[in-house]
Amino acid sequence: MSKVIISCAITGAMHTPTMSDALPITPAQIAAESIAAAHAGAAIIHLHARKPDDGEPTGNPDVFAQFLPKIHTETDAVINLTTGGSPTMSVADRLAGALRFKPEMCSLNMGSMNFAIFPAAKRVKSWKYGWEEGYVRNSDDFIFRNTFRDIKYILETMGGAGTKFEHECYDVGHLYSLAYFLDTGLVKPSFFVQLIFGILGGIGVDLDNLVFMKRTADRLFGPQSFQWSVLAAGRHQMPFLTQAALLGGNVRVGLEDSLFIGRGKMASSNAEQVLKIKRILAEMGHEAATPGEAREMLALKGKGNVSL
Ligand code: KMH
Ligand code: ZN
User: Fold this and answer.
1) Are 122 and 86 in contact (CB under 8 A)?
2) CA 49-159-15 angle, 5° bins
3) Distance, CA of 106 to CA of 197 (rounded, Å)
4) Which residue among 158, 196, 197, 253 has the greatest number of ligand 1 atoms within 8 angstroms of its CB, and so is best to mutate?
């Protein structure tokens, strides 16, 4: 049986509380969802923070501190902190949590881009919290900033802490930017590439695009130099991850990426998505990698070497 790493992105920053009652907001909810996802089979838990009273995205390390220790104590999962935060935050704010907790992994977004969710506003009749409508509607004007200087800074600071990266690539140019950093020696094999499909502003969800992205990565980096995973936004999540797994990829689920469990059906939890992809993988003869196996596959520094 081959091992597949399941990552689970618990809450993110683009979905808002009105869009799903299942979206965890408070530290207690984020901790409980993370622990359940890990127990369901996710080896890596990717985390953002939200203001506890209204779910607005925040990068405040004091908020991360309200849920990270519990996840760290109650699971063996690899903790992966966002450095993308939300497109409305400064890079310094986005990085503050990762700098404080020095996790085994953090995200690293490989290029500046449009990053939008405004079409979702059409489906909402009344919003739960005051910040949500403006945030969602104004995403038609968001620039998600990730310049070469930003990327270099994050590579140097977090790399210096022994943290490994989930290199988030939303389009083919991002692979070329990653190749540039490989050439400079700031990124060294073996590294972990998250191929992202279906963000409004990034490459679309299409099997041709998946094959194109994977082939381009193979050509640029050499197939032995990297581990790869796929996430697909919204309703495409499960069908597309199934195709990715057939091609030998690792997979990322979670309510950050999709609020659905099936066609037209909302997910009730992150763990529900983990269990579903685990069943699909099992039908293909794949087994979910344990956190220990993921640590070995990704050469991580280990659970004991984080500031938690
Ligand atoms: N929301 C995902 C598409 C980050 O946290 O750095 C990308 C993401 C960004 O996970
Ligand atoms: Zn994220």
Assistant:
1) no
2) 25
3) 19
4) 196
* Residues 34, 67 contacting (CB under 8 angstroms): yes
200: pLDDT confidence band, cut at 50, 70 and 90?
Answer: very high
Rg (CA), the chain: 18
Q: What is the pLDDT of residue 1?
A: 67
d(CA 298, CA 190): 7
Ligand 1 pocket check for 196: Cβ under 6 Å? yes
Nearest to 202 by CA among 166, 234, 172: 172
Which of 14, 81, 82 is the best mutation target for the ligand 1 pocket, counting ligand atoms within 8 Å of the beta carbon and taking the most? 82
Task: Please state whether beta strands 78-81 and 44-47 pair in parallel, antiparallel, or not at all (unpaired).
Answer: parallel
Taking a C-beta distance cutoff of 8 angstroms, is the pair 189, 123 a contact?
A: no
Q: What is the DSSP string of 101-149?
A: H--SEEEEE-S-EE-B-GGGGGG-SS-SSHHHHHHHHGGGG-EE---HH
Q: Quote the CA–CA distance of 31 and 79 in Å, as a whole number.
A: 12
Q: How far apart are CA 217 and CA 19, in angstroms?
A: 34
199 lines ligand 1 (CB under 6 A): yes
CA–CA gap between residue 4 and residue 294 (Å, rounded): 8
> Cα(150)–Cα(165) distance, rounded to whole angstroms?
14
pLDDT digits (tens, 9 = 90+) for 5-35: 999 999 999 999 999 999 999 999 999 999 9
Report yes or no: 64 and 96 within 8 Å, Cβ to Cβ: no
Instruction: Express each pLDDT in 221-271 by its tens digit.
Output: 999 999 999 999 999 999 999 999 999 999 999 999 999 999 999 999 999
